Amino acid sequence: MRKKLVVANWKMNGTSADIGAMLTAMQKDSVILNQIDVSVCVPAVFLSNMHAACGPLPISWGAQNVSDKAAGAFTGEISAQMLCDVGCSTVIVGHSERRLYYGENNHWVAQKWLATRKTALTPILCVGESLSEREKGQTLAVVMAQLDAVLKITTAKEFAHTVIAYEPVWAIGTGLTPTTNEVVSVHTALREHLVKQYDSATSQTVRLLYGGSVKGDNAAQLLTLANVDGGLIGGASLKYDTFSPIYKALI
Ligand code: PGA
């Protein structure tokens, strides 16, 4: 049985005070937070504060991006090892905003993903189709191409226990969501693809998250579907009052 996972993606928002306020409010949910996994992915400059800010809270934290390189003259980059050094457990890799605005293609995303596997970080690989791709019936082809770029350079052992987040680009920050049938069909296809590529045992260790306009009022519906092991939450993760109903819906 896979434990549910809820990941907060703060994107380029908030202050250290905002993060502190949310984590302080979350302290009262410790009993709930012990039953699921929650990881808060904050802007990189705040990561080194997270150990102190989380205190005894039973959650982990992570980054929103990582370099494909291990070390060296790569100005502005942050390596997987550095993220481990400040206590990160998770890192989002290949978010659609990185693909769209910063030119990350499938090959580059796969290299970043591989860099995380040289450390103890758990990568959260984002995949998802644009609206025009969905309208042309290309959803599965696009998503599988994004996944295959990683699968072709990795082993079953490296892929086991990692996370894939299915995030339709047109659902991110728009208030639009796919139907429950559409979510189940992509997630089931992803799971079957892993069985075909590796084996059933490996595929069962991978958590598949849904992301895109998840809120307190649709979390129970979207995040408890077959083959959905939790969610990747953007806008609603920025405040306790909008984030906590999402993880509470999974208990
Ligand atoms: P959203 O973003 O929840 O604001 O739609 C999700 C994401 O981009 O990960």
Describe the structure.
With 251 residues, the chain is of the alpha/beta class. It has helices at residues 16-26, 30-33, 50-54, 80-85, 96-101, 106-116, 131-135, 139-151, 156-159, 180-197, 200-205, 219-222, 240-248; strands at 5-9, 37-41, 60-63, 90-93, 122-127, 163-166, 207-211, 230-233. The chain has one domain (5-248): Aldolase class I (TIM Barrel, Alpha-Beta Barrel), CATH 3.20.20.70. Helix content is 41%, strand content 15%. Helix 3 links the parallel strand 2 (37-41) and strand 3. Helix 6 (106-116) packs across helix 8 and helix 8 runs parallel beside helix 10 (180-197). It starts with a strand and ends with a helix. The structure holds 2-phosphoglycolic acid.
Question: What labels describe this entry?
Answer:
TIM Barrel, 13 helices, alpha/beta, 15% strand, 8-stranded parallel barrel, binds 2-phosphoglycolic acid, 251 residues, globular, 8 strands
Structural class: alpha/beta
First-residue to last-residue Cα separation = 14 Å
CATH architecture assignment: Alpha-Beta Barrel
**Unreliable stretches:** none
Order of helices and strands: EHHEHEHEHHEHHHEHHEHEH
- Approximately how much beta-strand content do the residues carry? 5-15%
Radius of gyration: 17 Å
> Count the strands?
8
Please identify the top-level CATH class.
Alpha Beta
Listed once per kind, the bound small molecules are: 2-phosphoglycolic acid
Q: What is the average per-residue confidence, as pLDDT, rounded to a whole number? A: 98
Widest sheet, order of strands: 1-2-3-4-5-6-7-8
What coarse outline follows from CA principal-axis ratios?
globular
CATH topology: TIM Barrel
What share of residues is helical? Answer: 40-55%
Query: How many strands, what sense, and barrel or not for the largest sheet?
Result: 8 strands, parallel, barrel
Number of helices: 13
CATH superfamily: Aldolase class I
Q: What is the count of distinct domains?
A: 1
